[in-house]
Amino acid sequence: MRIGILGAGSIGLLFASYLGKQFDVTLFPRRHEQMDLINEKGVTIETLDSTFTTRVRATLDKNEFNKQELIIIAVKQYHLENIQADITNIHNEIPLLFLQNGKSHLKLINHLEHESIIVGSIEHGALKINETTVVHNGIGLTKLAPYRGEINRISPLLNWHCEYFQFKTYLDYKEILLKKLLVNAIINPLTAILKVKNGELIKNTFFMQIFHDLYNEIIQLFPELDSKIVLNEIIRICRNTENNESSMLKDITLQRKTEIDAIVGYILELAKEKNVQLPLTNMVYGMIKGMEKRGIE
């Protein structure tokens, strides 16, 4: 199976390295420098137990999009607008897999005419060390669900088994995206504000209290979910990725734009529609926006 991956950040590199062990993978980075380094060195994954390198091809040639049998869009939420025209020009019969945080990307997806569109939720912890190297410091699932069309269009991927890189399919994309939204809304901003790794949120009793307070405030917006089950799932992900730095913490540290609008901003918009007050969530949002503004000015 020929798989193209748009985006060569931590998630794009992580997927390329694992999938490249079994499939014909082409990475589409944004810059010539990274393309040349990937073609020269391959993509290296470092885990607690081992290090391995996978040879994949990298190119900036957008004509290569339509030679793929699956396109994985692994850029951040706020970069989607920049590549919207590229995605639209991909042949409609080629399945698309979106791996963004939040739910804002559904607006873009809804306007696409592709026959098969899949959305995913990633639980892995990954830290990009350099242009070709990622530390895989949290093992989890990649949850997939069809947004449109049949998910069996990507059956070679679904039938492939890798102990450290497993996929699980679901029927309801709304549920997996909503649960991931809650995971991101708790872990990402709190780790960025407190400047701690994921595991510290559940190890430090004071941080854990803030964790619970924020969760209890947000979960009231979603009465359709089982509060205890979702809470335990967030705690499990914190534990499984305890040594990982959240993407928002990395963005703040590197003075980059964050995905706070796509995650917490989305929740605040929903709260406004439902006329529900979320004072703690508003404060967390304002703190991240202030830190973001200070970093990128």
From TrEMBL:
E.C. code: 1.1.1.169
InterPro entries: 6-PGluconate_DH-like_C_sf (IPR008927), 6PGD_dom2 (IPR013328), ApbA (IPR003710), Ketopantoate_reductase (IPR050838), KPA_reductase (IPR013752), KPR_N (IPR013332), NAD(P)-bd_dom_sf (IPR036291)
KW Transmembrane helix (keyword) present: no
Swiss-Prot/TrEMBL keywords: NADP, Oxidoreductase, Pantothenate biosynthesis
Top-level division of the source organism's lineage: Bacteria
Reactions performed catalytically: (R)-pantoate + NADP(+) = 2-dehydropantoate + NADPH + H(+)
Cellular compartments per GO CC: cytoplasm
Membrane-spanning ranges: none
Record domain Ketopantoate reductase N-terminal: where: 3-148
Gene Ontology BP annotations: pantothenate biosynthetic process
Keyword check for Thylakoid: no
Pathway the protein contributes to: Cofactor biosynthesis; (R)-pantothenate biosynthesis; (R)-pantoate from 3-methyl-2-oxobutanoate: step 2/2
Broad enzyme group: oxidoreductase
All residue ranges annotated as the Ketopantoate reductase C-terminal domain in the record: 174-292
GO molecular function, one term: NADP binding
NCBIfam families named among the record's database cross-references: apbA_panE, PRK06522.2-4
Family named by the database record: Belongs to the ketopantoate reductase family.
Summary of the function given for this chain in its UniProt record: Catalyzes the NADPH-dependent reduction of ketopantoate into pantoic acid.
Protein name per the record: 2-dehydropantoate 2-reductase
Species: Heyndrickxia sporothermodurans
